[in-house]
Amino acid sequence: MSYTPTADEVKKLREETQAGMLDCKKAIQDANGDFEKAKDILRKKGLASVSKRSDRVASNGSIASYVHHGGRIGVLIEVRCETDFVARTDEFQKMGKTLAMQVAVSRPRYVKREDAPVEIVEREKKIYAEQASESGKPQQVVEKMVQGKLEKYFAEICLLDQEFMIGEAVKSTAKTVNDYVIETAAKLGEKVDVIRFVRMELGESTGN
To answer: In CATH, what number is assigned to the domain containing residue 65?
Structure first.
């Protein structure tokens, strides 16, 4: 019987290696629960090396664009890497285009959860807490319910937290946009940062 990793084990390995969630889960399974062996498996695949580049400066890159539905929706997105050489590769250019398509389809409001204004997050958290309290369940359960709803909220409004929706294999391999960025960075061998995006839709109010 294959080893089944816990959510905490997968989370810990991901935090230490910055590899994708599914890659971490599979590595722990293949290592039969041996944490250090799991890290070695990820290193051999080149998926754990991204964390070593996290303190480097990504000052090169490009601005990708995508126009959807006959010109009714347009997206510009800035993605950075470390060198001009990587910025000009097909893999990097493809990633920029793919991320722009994701923005067009999924309508995120921010790149990452840290970009969301604190007052907006706190307001949502308060609403979720009031709703959960009405269930009459213990406080510990209420807190987990609130956190669960907050995670779903981030998955709606933050690009990197969203479910990755572009590509032929997405239905069979559920992962986040951040997982996709990390995997691509591992292939490129450089740090990759998604900086900002602009999504425009014909007839949309500029106040939105």
So the answer is: 3.30.479.20
Residue 152 lies in a domain: yes
Residue linked to tokens 């664009």? 65
Rounded mean pLDDT of the chain? 86
Return the CATH number at 136. Answer: 1.10.286
- Give pLDDT tens digits for 76-129: 999 999 999 999 999 999 999 999 999 999 999 999 999 999 999 999 999 998
Q: pTM of the full predicted structure?
A: 0.71
Q: How crowded is residue 20: how many other Cβ atoms within 10 Å of its Cβ?
A: 24
- Total structural domains in the chain? 3
Pair of tokens at residue 128: 């979720």
pLDDT reported for residue 119? 95
Domain limits for position 147: 117-156
